[in-house]
Design brief:
By secondary structure, the protein is α+β, with helices and mostly antiparallel strands. The protein has two domains: 232 residues, Cytochrome Bc1 Complex, Chain A, domain 1 (2-Layer Sandwich); 175 residues, Cytochrome Bc1 Complex, Chain A, domain 1. 42% of the residues lie in helices and 23% in strands. It contains 15 helices and 15 strands. The strands form three sheets. It has a seven-stranded mixed β-sheet, sandwiched between helices. It has a five-stranded mixed β-sheet with strand order 11-15-12-14-13, sandwiched between helices. Strands 6-5-10 form a three-stranded antiparallel β-sheet, with no helix packed on it. α3 runs parallel beside α8. The longest helix has 20 residues. The protein starts with a strand and ends with a strand. The model has no long low-confidence stretch (mean pLDDT 95).
């Protein structure tokens, strides 16, 4: 095992790449009696097409999420469900655009829970009958997301912003998509992507690192897992313009909601590391649109909006900045934001204050093992590595660079979405 240390917080991670090339990250801590563990695959909904052994495969939207359901099929496998209950653990799974994560949380029986999680992951049975039965469950999940106005608006917004990007498809897909999914298509994706050299394990909690690493190695010794040639994701060439600049969604809600989005080329900012670019952009947006900003106070006092916020999204070669608002009159808000978006400002004091908040949040995340697991997992899925020097990366951010980032904002490619009754 290799010992890695997160700087400033002096928290240690123990890392090893096994003979079968599965990567293991262990975070032992005496801050808690609980544990949180996961096994993840670097395959998510962003893969819409891939090439392997000179053969190109088209992915049906929603396949990554559907496959998650079939791996974590606890409703079908009563034995696994029984073992989870007996161990006093909680099982869950999630899929996003970057990858898929299967996890267990508990406070006792850590080693037994780890073996159970691996059993779940490696003992799957995807057949046509179970796939057809699952379609109804996933269909209900799709409908649930469409009933959530914020989720629905974001889905429409990204579909309007892009011509060919993977974000035009939701992670869960549409009902028309999942009807096309078969056991054969899911098994192909599982065989191509759920390989040991595309998989990593994270265990956080109160345990002995050597003991847990040996437990994982003993388990793997009974499996005939070997690395495979990994597929190459085929990325669609995107167009700089937005596809749809304005849309109204009819929704019977008491609140009037608006999302105002800017689409920009990422390379104009000259910052190679996506995580640092995201920090700079969030700093700028927070200074202009958070509840403590002058613009927020101005809009609030003039009854232009009820609440307002922002988000940063880095999608392949593009950056999307979204201003979210709940307002009394959407048209008045849009009229004002179209004017004020070009007047964004950033003071040195404001920049430094937000930077300190980022540093504080980074340190506080180590108080929660679930946050530690999530941050490690997200870092691997986004950058294919864990950043042990993130504190310095944040601390080395400077006001002059932030001003250059702001100066490079492109205000031409805009897409707006609002609700109407």
């Amino acid at each position: 095992m290799i010992k890695k240390t997160f700087e400033k917080v002096n928290e240690n991670i123990y890392y090893e790449k096994l003979d079968n090339e599965i990567e293991v990250y262990l975070y032992p801590t005496n801050k808690t009696k609980n544990f949180y563990m996961s096994i993840s695959v670097k395959y998510g909904a962003k893969v819409t097409k891939y090439k392997l052994n000179d053969k190109i495969t088209e992915i049906i939207p929603g396949s990554a999420h559907f496959l998650e359901h079939k791996v974590m099929a606890l409703s079908e496998n009563k034995e696994f469900s029984k073992r989870i209950n007996e161990l006093g653990a909680l099982a869950n799974a999630w899929t996003n655009y970057q990858g898929t994560n299967y996890n267990l949380f508990g406070s006792i029986n850590l080693k037994e829970s780890l073996i159970l999680l691996l059993d779940i992951f490696y003992n799957i049975n995807i057949n046509e009958q179970s796939v057809e039965e699952e379609k109804g469950i996933i269909g209900e999940e799709i409908d649930m997301y469409k009933d959530q106005i914020n989720s629905l608006m974001y889905n429409h917004l990204f579909d309007n912003l892009f011509h060919k990007s993977y974000v035009k498809n939701t992670v869960v897909g549409e009902r028309s998509d999942i009807e096309k999914i078969t056991a054969k298509s899911l098994n192909k994706v599982y065989n191509d992507y759920y390989t040991p050299n595309n998989t990593f394990i994270i265990v956080t909690g109160n345990f002995d690192a050597d003991d847990i690493m040996n437990t994982i190695k003993d388990y793997m010794s009974n499996l005939n897992l070997k690395p495979k040639t990994l597929p190459r994701r085929i990325k669609e060439k995107e167009i700089n313009s937005v596809k749809v600049s304005y849309e109204e969604i009819k929704k019977d809600t008491n609140d009037v909601r608006v999302k105002y989005a800017l689409k920009m080329k990422k390379n104009v900012f000259g910052i190679k590391k996506d995580s640092i670019l995201s920090y700079y952009l969030n700093n700028i947006l927070s200074n202009n649109f958070s509840a403590t900003s002058p613009l927020f106070e101005k809009y609030k006092n003039n009854n232009i909006m009820i609440t307002m916020g922002s988000s940063v999204n880095i999608i392949d070669d593009y950056v999307v900045l979204v201003i979210n608002a709940i307002c009394k009159d959407a048209d008045i808000f849009i009229k004002n934001i179209e004017k004020d978006i070009r007047k964004l400002s950033l003071t040195k004091n404001g920049f430094e204050r937000k930077k300190k908040l980022f540093l504080k949040s980074y340190i506080m995340d180590f108080d929660n093992i679930e946050d530690v697991e999530y941050n490690i997992c997200s870092s691997i899925l986004l950058d294919n590595k864990v950043d042990y020097n993130e504190y310095s990366d944040i601390n080395n951010m400077n006001y002059e660079t932030a001003k250059k980032v702001l100066d490079n904002f492109d205000y031409e490619n805009v897409s707006i979405i609002k609700t109407v009754k």
